[in-house]
Amino acid sequence: MRRMVLCVLPLLLLACQREAPVPAQPAAGSGGADAEAVQPLAETPVKLEDVVEMDPRYIVGISYPPEANKYPGLAAELHRFAEAARDELKQALPGTELQPGVTYDLSLSFTTLLDTPRVLAIAADGGSYTGGAHDNPIIARFFWLVREEHLLTADELVTDAGDWQAISDYVREQLHAALSQRIDADELDPAERSRMMQTAGRMIDEGARPDVANFQQFEPIAGQGGKLAGLRFVFPPYQVGPYSDGMQTVEVPASVLVPHVAPAYRDLFVAG
Question: What DSSP string runs through 239-270?
Answer without folding.
Answer: TSS-GGG--EEEEEEHHHHGGGS-GGGGGGB-
